Amino acid sequence: MTVYAGQGDARRTLDLLWGAAPAPAVRSGPKPALSVEAIVSAAMEVADVRGMAALSMRAVGERLGRTAMALYTYVPGKDELLDLMHDRALAELPSREGGSEDWRSAVTTWSEDLYECYLRHPWMLQVSQARPVLGPAELGAMEGLLSALAPAGLEPRRLRGAVAALWQFVRGLAAATADARGAAAATGVSDEAWWGARSARLAELAPDLPQRFPQFVAMQAGGASDPSAGEPDAFSSGLAVLLDGIAVSCTGT
Questions:
Q1: pTM, entire model
Q2: Which of 84, 98, 164, 203 is at a distance of 20 to 30 A from 107, taking alpha carbons?
């Protein structure tokens, strides 16, 4: 399931993202007033627990003990709410001081922070990056990466390539990890049982596997394993390869 950000009214969405939207008139009543912040938090809770497919204004309203109609005073609709949720999630990224000469360490920390954010909120991985949200937290995340990379001294074209490669690497591996973690719950079969059954049968069907696929077997023998068991190693080793490539592109090296 892929959803697209930026589908709501541009002016109203950006006003909400940047805190420029006028506060709605609050009617007196027995229930406490709602707020945009409370609605966004409830929506994230729905998506975190039940997934993107369960997200609706009705579901959010129910979590708040309100009707869906009560939410529209604060947020125009689900499209705008999705943008607010995505930016709020990215606001969880720690603020890091820029200017460190150790750009590899700074980029590694940024990558780890984003990776963990995606795994806390896997529904984010279903939000297409074709059109950015353009909220303060999203731009702040980009600024954080650019600040971390600044001491590397990359020229603009290579800098854009490095940013794209790093962000997509983190996002892609987070998606693979989230899928691996969810597979057992969705299918009722543990990773160990799944791999064990197939490995045993594959060995029977293709006893000459090392001769037919020598590079694959060598990689496995060298320490690689199934995706769910190799999450930390896949992240650290893959990121190291990317950083090595960036280092080669640095000016003066």
A1: 0.89
A2: 84
**In which element (H, E) is residue 54 found?**
none
Reading the block at residue 13, the tokens are 């969405």
CA distance 234 to 219: 13
Give the tens place of pLDDT for each residue, 34-50.
999 999 999 999 999 99
How far apart, in whole angstroms, are the C-alpha atoms of residue 61 and residue 228? 36
Both tokens of residue 219?
């990689």
Q: Please state whether beta strands 127-128 and 3-4 pair in parallel, antiparallel, or not at all (unpaired).
A: parallel
- Determine the 3-state secondary structure of 3 from DSSP: strand
Query: Which residues, other chains included, contact 118 with Cβ-Cβ below 8 Å and sequence gap of 6+?
Result: 124, 125, 170, 171, 174, 175, 178
Name the phi and psi angles at 4, rounded to 5. Answer: -110, 130
Structural domains present in the chain = 3-90 (1.10.10.60), 103-249 (1.10.357.10)
147 φψ region: left (φ > 0), alpha (ψ -120 to 50), beta (else): alpha
Convert the pLDDT of each residue in 110-141 to its tens digit.
999 999 999 999 999 999 989 999 999 999 99
Q: Mean pLDDT, to the nearest integer, of 233-237?
A: 91
CA distances from 99 to 72, 158, 171 (A): 43, 19, 25
pLDDT (tens digit per residue) in 67-85: 999 999 999 999 999 999 9
Convert 42-77 to b/e letters by CB count within 10 Å (16 or more is b).
bbbebbeeeebeebebebbbebbebeeeebeebbbb
Longest Cα pair distance anywhere in the chain, in angstroms?
A: 77
Q: Given a cut of 90, is residue 231 above it in pLDDT?
A: no
